[in-house]
Specification:
By secondary structure, the chain is of the alpha+beta class. It has 3 domains: 19-107; 124-242, eRF1 domain 2 (Nucleotidyltransferase, domain 5, 2-Layer Sandwich), CATH 3.30.420.60; 267-371, 2-Layer Sandwich (60s Ribosomal Protein L30, Chain: A). It is 38% helix and 27% strand. It contains 10 helices and 18 strands. It has helices spanning 12-15, 33-52, 57-69, 113-119, 157-165, 172-198, 212-221, 244-274, 285-293, 338-348, and strands at residues 21-27, 29-30, 73-74, 77-84, 87-95, 103-107, 124-131, 134-141, 144-154, 203-210, 230-232, 281-283, 297-302, 310-314, 320-321, 332-337, 352-355, 367-371. The protein has a 5-stranded mixed β-sheet with strand order 9-8-7-10-11, sandwiched between helices. A hairpin with a 5-residue loop joins strand 14 and strand 15.
């Protein structure tokens, strides 16, 4: 996907690809006769729009085939497709997004704004189900309901059974001690598995469920850097003893709370800078562009989408130029709506972009950037 599987920003490697790009944001709703009829007409309509923007034949064929070959879902849902040099790079559903008419873009770099707005602030989370005989760790990302990955630890239940049930070979204290030690080792392996999977993942929530002692042991064994993200649920779905619907509702609540906490943290950072002479805060489109040009922007916060403005995209550093002026004229590849150019510059300077309620920004700012270092 264009967004990395976290909220750190956009996959800059896609912007570094040279050649032609075509993107399309279309309605992907099915369920009614009218929706099916609209879906049947959609490839032809998109092809016509692409031709009007001088898209190449290979790009048109790839994009329309991608739309035609995929299935929609119950409304509202959108589909985003990106094609580079005749090959489909992205083909993703965006649940909850209503699209009234198809929107296509053709140019030297992709327009990922719709996807970024829908997926901004996404984070990965683990759901671990632990038992005395092992456990499973499931990786999800809030950008999609689909499970990203699963890994498990399989203990030796027959050994636990033997330790508990063969008094002729083990007296009762030894039976219990052996079983506890095996359960501890299994919990340790689950904790190590979580830590390993978290190394390259932007995890902001770790939900532990299962056997009471096992989940407590796992929580205690996790690295200190992960412990702030741990929530223990009083459930044991591995044995069928917990209501899975209730567990799902609990996880959904935790995801919402985690997202809200992240937005609240950004609001606090903006507020602190607003009351501190704005030493590390760029306010307004012009200041944000200047901050991106010097790679000073750490997090770009967009309230109003700046659709009424345009910016110039550059072929190399600093990647973006103001709407007017002669700066970096030799690198200008064209002028596009500000959201597209801002998103590209954010990715290419390894910054983060977040689309937030306008209320958390200074009055009438519309857009700000938290800076990596103070203004001079």
């Amino acid at each position: 996907m264009a967004l990395r599987a976290d909220s750190n920003g956009i996959d800059a490697s896609l912007y570094r690809k040279t050649g032609s790009w075509c993107t399309a944001l279309v309605d992907a709703s099915l369920g009614t006769t009218a929706a099916h009829e609209a879906a049947d007409r959609l490839p032809g309509e998109v092809a016509k729009l692409l031709k009007s923007q001088q898209a190449g034949a290979a790009d048109i064929e790839a994009l329309t085939n991608a739309i035609e070959a995929t299935k929609g879902l119950r409304a509202p849902v959108a589909r985003f497709v990106a094609v580079h040099d005749g090959a489909v790079v992205l083909n993703e559903l965006i649940p909850g997004l209503k699209v009234d008419s198809a929107a296509v873009d053709v140019g030297p770099f992709p327009n990922f704004t719709a996807l970024a707005r829908a997926r901004g602030g996404a984070f990965s989370y683990f759901v671990a189900e632990a038992g005395r005989d092992g456990g499973e760790v499931h990786l999800y990302n809030t950008a999609s309901p689909e499970r990203v990955a699963s890994r498990g630890v399989v203990g030796l239940p027959e050994e636990i059974h033997r330790a508990r049930k063969v008094p002729s070979e083990y007296d009762q204290p030894k039976n219990q001690s052996a079983a506890d030690e095996m359960a501890r080792r299994n919990a340790e392996e689950v904790a190590e598995l979580i830590a390993e999977m978290a190394k390259d993942t932007f995890v902001r929530l770790i939900v532990l469920s299962g056997d009471v002692k096992s989940r407590e042991t796992i929580a205690g064994m996790l690295p200190g850097a992960l412990k702030p993200y741990v929530v223990v649920l009083d459930s044991h779905t591995r044995t069928g003893g917990a209501d899975s619907k209730q567990v799902d509702e609990s996880i959904s609540r935790l995801i919402s709370e985690t997202h809200d906490a992240a937005v609240a943290e950004l609001e606090q950072r903006v507020s602190a800078q607003t009351g501190n002479g704005r030493a590390q805060l760029a306010v307004g489109l012009a200041e944000v562009v200047s901050a991106l040009q010097s790679a000073q922007a750490e997090v770009v916060l967009v309230g109003q989408y700046q659709d009424e403005h345009t910016l110039r995209a550059l072929s190399g550093e600093p990647w973006v130029a103001h709407e007017e002026g002669d700066d970096h004229a030799d690198l200008v590849i064209g002028q596009w709506p500000a959201p597209e150019v801002l998103l590209r510059a954010t990715a290419l300077t390894d910054a983060t972009i977040r689309y937030v309620p306008d209320s958390i920004l200074p009055a009438d700012a519309g857009i700000v950037a938290l800076l990596r270092w103070a203004k001079t």
